[in-house]
Every structure is written in structure tokens, then in C-alpha cells.
TrEMBL record:
<feature type="short sequence motif" description="'HIGH' region">
    <location>
        <begin position="45"/>
        <end position="55"/>
    </location>
</feature>
<dbReference type="InterPro" id="IPR001412">
    <property type="entry name" value="aa-tRNA-synth_I_CS"/>
</dbReference>
<dbReference type="InterPro" id="IPR037118">
    <property type="entry name" value="Val-tRNA_synth_C_sf"/>
</dbReference>
<protein>
    <recommendedName>
        <fullName>Valine--tRNA ligase</fullName>
        <ecNumber>6.1.1.9</ecNumber>
    </recommendedName>
</protein>
<keyword id="KW-0067">ATP-binding</keyword>
<dbReference type="InterPro" id="IPR019499">
    <property type="entry name" value="Val-tRNA_synth_tRNA-bd"/>
</dbReference>
<comment type="similarity">
    <text>Belongs to the class-I aminoacyl-tRNA synthetase family. ValS type 1 subfamily.</text>
</comment>
<dbReference type="Pfam" id="PF10458">
    <property type="entry name" value="Val_tRNA-synt_C"/>
</dbReference>
<dbReference type="Pfam" id="PF00133">
    <property type="entry name" value="tRNA-synt_1"/>
</dbReference>
<dbReference type="InterPro" id="IPR009008">
    <property type="entry name" value="Val/Leu/Ile-tRNA-synth_edit"/>
</dbReference>
<keyword id="KW-0648">Protein biosynthesis</keyword>
<dbReference type="InterPro" id="IPR033705">
    <property type="entry name" value="Anticodon_Ia_Val"/>
</dbReference>
<feature type="binding site">
    <location>
        <position position="574"/>
    </location>
    <ligand>
        <name>ATP</name>
    </ligand>
</feature>
<feature type="short sequence motif" description="'KMSKS' region">
    <location>
        <begin position="571"/>
        <end position="575"/>
    </location>
</feature>
<comment type="function">
    <text>Catalyzes the attachment of valine to tRNA(Val). As ValRS can inadvertently accommodate and process structurally similar amino acids such as threonine, to avoid such errors, it has a 'posttransfer' editing activity that hydrolyzes mischarged Thr-tRNA(Val) in a tRNA-dependent manner.</text>
</comment>
<dbReference type="InterPro" id="IPR002303">
    <property type="entry name" value="Valyl-tRNA_ligase"/>
</dbReference>
<keyword id="KW-0175">Coiled coil</keyword>
Length: 958
């Protein structure tokens, strides 16, 4: 028995237990042994994280695909898991230690600190997994993985060792994004560009051989910089090759102010003649662009800022080399001064010597660490790198050939741009939490990369015995006694970038590098659902690693979803105070309402503007379905054994079967094409408009009437159509549909495992090949018929039933619309004249007279050869229906009202167009503000069009 009120919280808790106890989501179920696999890997959320709106969207869309394919008979593996999130997790634990006034990481030591991190992970690491379960995610939770699980760690080490052996991993001194607070390199994704109001300093660099004078422009060249403190590391000045002002200086030297070092003027297209002075200082050790300029011209690299963001000048051989006599005093004065304090003092010193031409206010983007908040320093340091350029080539080719495709397709361009301009990938991090790099260093710094310490020791001892650094006897002793080799070789303390282990996710989670049967069955995966911001950082790297180690692309389709913004279109951020917590929405409206909202708004390529009112609206939608199901139950509607909807005799019942088939195909095709919003829109219209508003209403006279064959058939059809709705709606709103299925459908088994109303078509050759591969060498080829049945009721059509019921619906709808436009009160009944009606209309109208009169508020329905004078004429499916309104409405008053409303609409249109025509407004206003004005204009235009239509109709009644 269905409860009177729909209470999502009760249902969600109960259904979660039902699914878990029944192992509904387990991959490889015995009943699916012969089914074609369908695999999705979850983008692993950080173990430190909690569910945010991006997670809610991403996982809702994945769940729709998984539930859809599971109902289509596939063996679905939705692989769940979490990421160890190196920096984020280490920061959380270090902050806890500080807040509890306990010893810090360094005092505690690596081993004890890592024990503490694992302890924290055990206590709090499952938070987001439990939140995903609240959302209804149908992952195979028995297969949950963590990027630092033993098996995944083994995969990480094997990949590192093999790539190093192949020359694709190496150590190099290059610039990295350095966080001076966390004291580690970070990825580009962890860098947050922030607009800062600063200054642009124009500095005079004296030309060698000329007597410097601030009044003599021929004695110096002017360079512009936002970072005067890095000038101490300048090794060149760049000018554009075509800039006539400086052509005579190319190849000559200028003198670095304050320092006195001679640096060369080089011609390079990086310098923009239209920007600043047209000349730029080149500091290869402190700027990514300058690093490349320096490489092109063989300029030296002088690092003058240390790991903590202070000037590092004393004992700095690179800095002190080639300095004129007396310059070392300057080095001593500024040594270990914070970079920003040094900036102020250096500017003062430059001004006192006349080396500053002018200073201009300058707003520019400065990189900050997204976690530490500190200004990121380009830092020259030894790090481990992957030769991403080599690995990227097959990954580019796979997308170009169509092995992997992006949805929407326009993201392929972004992918190509990133991949074709890819730089070496820095994979080392100066952290303790993470996969420690499997590299050991000998006493002379030689590197030994191996999967285990024993293997590294063996390589090292063999090498040093051969080099006669140690004797054979010493080597044997070290091999046997760990204490005797203490300090002989030491392990690299750094850990790997989190993205390195994430790149292996599609196959490491399946048991690779072991010869696990899951690898054969579930790799490659079918679809990846993710956000555009990690196409490069995660998607591209999975492509590279999958192709290199598995020789196949990791997924055939990459669906890129957009952002969830606030209702005005602004990006959500804590600083703006506009963050919407999905868990709060689930608590208030239920997970189903939130899921359906996100799906209904997930149009390809368009950001979601999320308003709480939309979630509330879809909660009402769930309530509507609940009440319709209660109505069916109260009227004893049930599907008898052997019922065949295609054999229904009543026109109304054949019509709902026709509409159900149409909607089934529409929803199926939309999900297959990743048009989630279209699929949600189709099922919403069918439930609310077709089933609840029309079918149930039109069926009420029969259901409430005397017993008859028509009543029996209608009861069966009401229940059958409800069950079809539950199936179609289940991927979107799993909790309420599973509950109603259990209570009302009274079928054996779960809805989550029920058959989808429309089966896949005949399998393609590719699918047949998958079936053969899935069968394995000892199993017979699986019959496609077992996996992909071809026909079912969704092929049913009845144009005649659709024409008759469609005519009734269109007629009532248009009459209601006119009544609303003309402000006719509900109590006022109007007449209807069917003018020049066809024989078909004359024959069907009497059958529906009572229904039409009741639903359209009519006093009478009659036939005539033509429409009477003063009647509003409606064109309904090619035939005229007339409403005589003379004496029913005050035509003059209505005209005045409509004119007034049209005037208001015109004013709104003019106001919006005035703003949008203002180039300054469009350029300077926030994106969401401009978009809001466009929406106001479109709404006003649509309103005006409807008012003009109503005014035109009013003329007919004059």
C-alpha cells in the first residue's frame, strides 16, 4: 500500500539497504555471465573531499548511463574509488597536528607521519563515498579502490620503472611551479591565477661602452618588468628582430644595474614591439617564457630565489660568477631577504642611481597556490619528468581516427591544442604522502630505478663492484646484511604527482599488472564522464598510459559536461557566498529531485544555472507521480498475467500505448547520444502532461463507472503505463521508482535489474567481436540473441488512436488558452461550434462531448457550415473550432488591457536592448549579468508575441 505522503528521506534509506543487500550493482553477476560488459570508471574524488555540485552532476550522469545499460541487460561495472590527493591530504593532517599543538611533520619523522595520515584516512576517508551513496550512485561498491592500495601501488611502480627503462622518464633541471609555503612543486591545475593591482617598472640598462646618464637615451635601453627583484638573475635582454629601434644593439652587451654583470641583447619574437618599451629582460631561472628564450639563445640560468621565496645570493656560484669587483657586498646585504621585501629595497636602490625611468600602475594576473594561497614562484630545480610529447602522439592519433570521440565534439579541438603543444610532465613532488619514487642514489649520485629496494641494491652493488668502488666481498656482505649497506644507497624522498597514479585508473583498478580476468573483460571501458577542466590533466594522461601499456584506448567515448553555476549564471565560490550544497538539497527535496534537476538542465555545451526553485519543482514532479500511482492503486489498477498492450481495444488505451512507445524510443535515443536533458524532458512530458494530465483524466469516467470489459482493460493499461514510466524514469529518479515498483508493480525482482522497455538493435560487428572476446578461449561464442533481443512493444504505433485522442487534447488545450488570454472566469461557460467539420470529426466528437465540455468549461458543442460572426476561430488539426464570445467578454476593455500589456513588453524589450547595444556594458559587466539581460529581452519578445496573437483573436470577436 502506498503511503499517503511522499517522504524521500524514508524511501532513500530503505532502498539503499535493499540494493546493497541484493548486490544489485555487482559486476559479473551470474545472471550476466553471458552479457556484453559495460564499464565506466568513476573520476576518483579526493579522499579529503565532500560532495559538491560538480560531483553531484558528474555522478548523476554516470549513474544514468549505468542504470540504463544495466536494465538493457549489460554486465555493468561502474568502478568506484578515491584518490589519495597528495598535497590536500598532507595539508589536512599537518593542520590537525598544528591545531592540536602536536609535533609537526618534520619532528615526527616520515614513518610516524604516514602512520598518522593512514589513521586519518581510515577515520574520515569514506565521507565522500557515503555521500555518493546518498545520491544513489549504483557503483559496484565491493570493488572500491584507493590510489594507494597495494595493487594500485604495484601498478604505479611498474609503470615508473618501465617508462624509465624506455627512456620516457628522466631527471632534469627545469622550471616548475613552486609553492614557497608548502615547499613542493605543484601542477598547473593547482595554480590559481589571481588578478592583482601592481606596478610596471621601466628600468634603464646601461649599454656597454657608453657612459650612463639618465638624460642620455643613447646610453641605455629601457626594459619593463613587474618583478624587479628577479633582475639579479637576468642573463639577457630580448628585442623583436623587426624592431628597428634596437637592431644595432642585437649581439651587443648591456650592463645589469646594481650587479654590474654583462648580459647580451638577443633578437627573439617573444618580445612585443607594441608592449611596454619593446625590450624585455630575460631571467631564464625565474620565468617560464624566459626559460624558453634562454634555451633558444644559449643564455645562462641564474637562480636567485630559494625554496622559501627569499633571495639566495651568498655562496651562489652561478650568481657570483663574472661579477665585477665589489659586487659581492651587495650579495651579502640582500641574502635571505624575502622576495617582496627585496623588491622594495631594490627599487629604492635603482631609483637612487637613476636606473628607473618611470613606474606605472599595472593590473595583471599573478599565480597563487590554490591550497596555500601563496604566490607561486617559477623555480629552477631537479625533478623527475615524463616525455609526454612521445606518449602524446598515439593519444592524438586515437582521437583523430575516431577510436575515442569527444561529446560534444568541439572539445576535440581543445584536446589537440593541449596535446600538440605538450611540455615535459613534472611528476615529482616534495611531499611524504603519496607513492614514493622507486629510485635510489649511490654514493656518487648515480641513480638506480627498480621495483624493489632489493633489486636496486643488487643493481647498485653490481655496478660499484664493476667500477671497483667496493670489493666483491664487500658487495656480498652488503647484500646479506642490511646494516652494512646503511647509507650506501638512499631512496629518493620525493613522491609522485597524484595525476600519475590517476592516469592508470582504468586498468590498475581492474588488477593490472596481474593477469586478472577483470582486465580482459572490462578493459577498455566504454565511456568517461568528466569536466572540461581536467581534459589535459587526467583524460589526456589516461589516454597516453592506456595506449602505451594496454595497447588500446582506455575508453571509446569521453562525455564532457559543463559547470553548475548559481541561478544568475555566476560561478559558485565560497568568497561570493553563492555555493549550493547538494547535501542540503537532498535533505530538503530528496536525491531524486536533485538528480532530475541536474539531468534536465545538462544540455551539451551549456552551463547549468541552478536555482533551488527548479529542485523544488522536480520534487513536485515526484509528488505528482506518487499521487498518480496512489490513484491507480486505489482504483485497483494492476497488470494481469499475459496482458498485451498492443491488443487493447479501447481507443484511449491504444493511444497511451502509442505515446509510451514513442517516449520510450525518444528517451532511449537521447541517452545513447548523451543528450540527458532531452531524455529527461521527454520522460517529464510523458509523466506530467500525457499520463497524469490527460490519460488519467480521460480514463476517470471509465474507472469510476460500472464494471465492464472496457474498465478491466483500462485498469490494466493504467498500471502497465505506470510500470513503463517507472522503468523509463528509474535511471533519473532511482529511489522513488524502485519504491513504487516494489509496492505497486508486484513483480519478482528489483526495478534496477528489470528489462528496459526498448532493447538494443541488432549487434554491430564490433559488438560481436566484444562478445567473442568476453567469452574467452574456453567458452563457446555467446549468442547475440541472449544479450541483445531485437523487438518489443516500443515498435507499437497506432496513428488512428493518436489522431482521435490528439484532437481532443489539442481542442481542449486551445480553448483553455483562449479563455486564459481573454480573462474568462472559470464559472463562465462558453459554447463551441465545430465549423465545416469533416465526417471523421462529426463521428468522433459525440464520443468525447461530455469530456470536452467538462475539461474546457463549455455549455454546448454544435456543428455549423461556417463559424458564426463575432466568434474566435481556432485551427485544430486543420479544422475550424469557433468560440462565440459576443456578450461573454467586454471586447473594448480587453483590448485596452492587452494594449497596456504590449506597452509594458515593449518597454522591457527597449530597456534590455539599450543595455545590450552599449559596448561598454557588454565588455565590463559580469558574464552572468549580460546573459540575464539577454534572457530578459527574449522573455519580453516571447510575451509580446503571445499578446499580439491574443489581440488578433480579439478582433475576430468584435
Amino acid at each position: 500500500m502506498i503511503e499517503k505522503n511522499y517522504q524521500p528521506a524514508d524511501i532513500e534509506a530503505r532502498m539503499s539497504v535493499v540494493w546493497e543487500d541484493s548486490l544489485a550493482f555487482k559486476a559479473g553477476r551470474p545472471d550476466r555471465r553471458d552479457a556484453v560488459p559495460f564499464t565506466i570508471v568513476i573520476p576518483p574524488p579526493n579522499v579529503t573531499g565532500s560532495l559538491h555540485m560538480g560531483h553531484a552532476l558528474n555522478n548523476t550522469l554516470q549513474d544514468i548511463l549505468c542504470r540504463f545499460e544495466r536494465m538493457r541487460g549489460r554486465d555493468v561495472l561502474w568502478q568506484p574509488g578515491t584518490d589519495h590527493a597528495g598535497i590536500a591530504t598532507q595539508m589536512v593532517v599537518e593542520r590537525q597536528l598544528m591545531e592540536r599543538q602536536q609535533p609537526g611533520r618534520r619532528e615526527m619523522g616520515r614513518e610516524k607521519f604516514l602512520e598518522r595520515v593512514w589513521q586519518w584516512k581510515a577515520e574520515s576517508g569514506d565521507t565522500i563515498i557515503n555521500q555518493l551513496k546518498r545520491l544513489g550512485a549504483s557503483c559496484d561498491w565491493s570493488r572500491e579502490r584507493f590510489t594507494m592500495d597495494e595493487g594500485l601501488s604495484k601498478a604505479v611502480i611498474k609503470v615508473f620503472v618501465e617508462l624509465h627503462r624506455d627512456g620516457l622518464i628522466y631527471k632534469d633541471k627545469r622550471l616548475v611551479n613552486w609553492d614557497t609555503k608548502l615547499l613542493t612543486a605543484i601542477s598547473d591545475l593547482e595554480v590559481q591565477p589571481t588578478e592583482v593591482k601592481g606596478s610596471l617598472w621601466y628600468l634603464r640598462y646601461p649599454i656597454e661602452g657608453k657612459t650612463f646618464s639618465p638624460e642620455d637615451p643613447a646610453s641605455f635601453i629601457v626594459v619593463a618588468t613587474t618583478r624587479p627583484e628577479t633582475m639579479l638573475g637576468d642573463t639577457g635582454v630580448a628585442v623583436h628582430p623587426d624592431d628597428e629601434r634596437y637592431q644595432k644593439l642585437v649581439g651587443k652587451n648591456v650592463i645589469l644595474p646594481l650587479v654590474g654583470r654583462k648580459i647580451k641583447v638577443v633578437a627573439d619574437e617573444y618580445s612585443d614591439p607594441e608592449k611596454g618599451s619593446g625590450a624585455v629582460k630575460v631571467t631564464p631561472a625565474h620565468d617560464f617564457n624566459d626559460f624558453e628564450v634562454g634555451n633558444r639563445h644559449g643564455l645562462g640560468r641564474i637562480s636567485v630565489i630559494d625554496r622559501e621565496g627569499c633571495l639566495d645570493l651568498l655562496d651562489n656560484e652561478d650568481y657570483l660568477r663574472d661579477l665585477p669587483e665589489g659586487a659581492s657586498q651587495f650579495a651579502e646585504e640582500f641574502h635571505k631577504v624575502d622576495r617582496f621585501a627585496a623588491r622594495k629595497r631594490i627599487v629604492e636602490r635603482l631609483e637612487s642611481f637613476g636606473f628607473i625611468e618611470r613606474i606605472e600602475p599595472h593590473t595583471h594576473m599573478v599565480p597563487h597556490g590554490d591550497r596555500s594561497g601563496s604566490v607561486i614562484e617559477p623555480y629552477l630545480t631537479d625533478q623527475w619528468y615524463v616525455d609526454a610529447k612521445t606518449l602524446a602522439k598515439p593519444a592524438i592519433a586515437a582521437v583523430r581516427s575516431g577510436e575515442t570521440s569527444f561529446v560534444p565534439k568541439n572539445w576535440e579541438k581543445t584536446y589537440y591544442e593541449w596535446m600538440e603543444n605538450i611540455q615535459p610532465w613534472c611528476i615529482s613532488r616534495q611531499l611524504w604522502w603519496g607513492h614514493q619514487i622507486p629510485a635510489w642514489y649511490g654514493p656518487d649520485g648515480k641513480v638506480f630505478v627498480a621495483e624493489t629496494e632489493e633489486e636496486a641494491v643488487s643493481h647498485a652493488l653490481g655496478y660499484y663492484v664493476e667500477q671497483e668502488v667496493i670489493t666483491v666481498e664487500q658487495g656480498r656482505e652488503m647484500a646479506l646484511d642490511r646494516n652494512k649497506r646503511e647509507g650506501f644507497i638512499t631512496r629518493d624522498e620525493d613522491v609522485l604527482d597524484t595525476w600519475f597514479s590517476s592516469a592508470l585508473w582504468p586498468f590498475s583498478t581492474l588488477g593490472w599488472p596481474e593477469d586478472a580476468p577483470e582486465v580482459q573483460r572490462y578493459y577498455p571501458t566504454n565511456a568517461l564522464v568528466t569536466g572540461f577542466d581536467i581534459i589535459f590533466f587526467w583524460v589526456a594522461r589516461m589516454m597516453m598510459m592506456g595506449l602505451h601499456f594496454m595497447k588500446e584506448v582506455p575508453f571509446s567515448t569521453i562525455y564532457i559536461h559543463a559547470l553548475v553555476r548559481d541561478e544568475k549564471g555566476a560561478k559558485m565560490s565560497k568568497s561570493k557566498g553563492n555555493v549550493i550544497d547538494p547535501l542540503n538539497l537532498i535533505d530538503e527535496y530528496g536525491a531524486d529531485a536533485l538528480r532530475f534537476t541536474l539531468a534536465a538542465m545538462a544540455a551539451q555545451g551549456r552551463d547549468i544555472k541552478l536555482a533551488t526553485s527548479r529542485v523544488e519543482g522536480y520534487r513536485n514532479f515526484a509528488t505528482k507521480l506518487w499521487n498518480a500511482s496512489r490513484f491507480a492503486e486505489m482504483n485497483h489498477c494492476a497488470v494481469p498475467d499475459g496482458f498485451e498492450p498492443a491488443k487493447a481495444k479501447e481507443t484511449l488505451n491504444r493511444w497511451i500505448a502509442h505515446e509510451s512507445a514513442h517516449t520510450t524510443r525518444e528517451v532511449t535515443e537521447a541517452i545513447e547520444a548523451y543528450r540527458f536533458n532531452d531524455a529527461a524532458g521527454a520522460i517529464y512530458r510523458f509523466v506530467w502532461n500525457v499520463y497524469c494530465d490527460w490519460y488519467v483524466e480521460l480514463a476517470k469516467p471509465v474507472l469510476l463507472g460500472p464494471d465492464s470489459p472496457a474498465k478491466d482493460e483500462t485498469r490494466a493499461m493504467v498500471a502497465w503505463a505506470r510500470d513503463e514510466i517507472l522503468k523509463l524514469l528509474h535511471p533519473f529518479m532511482p529511489f522513488i521508482t524502485e519504491e513504487l515498483w516494489e509496492v505497486t508493480a508486484k513483480r519478482d525482482g528489483l526495478l534496477a535489474l528489470a528489462e528496459w522497455p526498448l532493447k538494443p538493435a541488432e549487434p554491430t560487428p564490433e559488438q560481436l567481436a566484444m562478445l567473442a572476446a568476453a567469452a574467452g578461449p574456453t567458452d563457446p561464442l555467446i549468442s547475440p540473441a541472449l544479450v541483445m533481443p531485437i523487438f518489443d512493444h516500443a515498435d507499437f504505433t497506432d496513428p488512428k488512436a493518436e489522431a482521435e485522442i490528439g484532437w481532443v487534447i489539442d481542442l481542449v488545450t486551445q480553448i483553455r488558452s483562449v479563455r486564459a488570454e481573454m480573462n474568462i472566469q472559470p464559472a463562465t461557460l462558453t459554447a463551441l461550434v465545430l465549423a465545416g467539420a469533416s465526417a471523421e470529426t462529426r463521428e468522433r466528437a459525440p464520443r468525447w462531448t461530455d469530456v470536452i465540455k467538462r475539461m474546457a468549461r463549455l455549455s454546448d458543442i454544435s456543428f455549423a457550415d461556417r463559424a458564426p460572426d463575432g466568434a474566435v476561430q481556432l485551427l485544430v488539426r486543420g479544422e475550424v473550432a469557433a468560440l462565440p464570445l459576443k456578450g461573454v467578454i467586454d471586447v473594448a476593455a480587453e483590448r485596452t488591457r492587452l494594449d497596456k500589456e504590449i506597452g509594458k513588453a515593449d518597454a522591457d524589450i527597449k530597456r534590455a536592448e539599450s543595455k545590450l547595444a552599449n559596448e561598454k556594458f557588454v565588455a565590463n559587466a559580469a558574464e552572468e549579468v549580460v546573459e540575464e539581460e539577454r534572457e530578459k529581452r527574449e522573455a519580453a519578445l516571447a510575451r509580446k508575441a503571445k499578446l499580439l496573437e491574443a489581440l488578433e483573436r480579439l478582433k475576430q470577436a468584435s
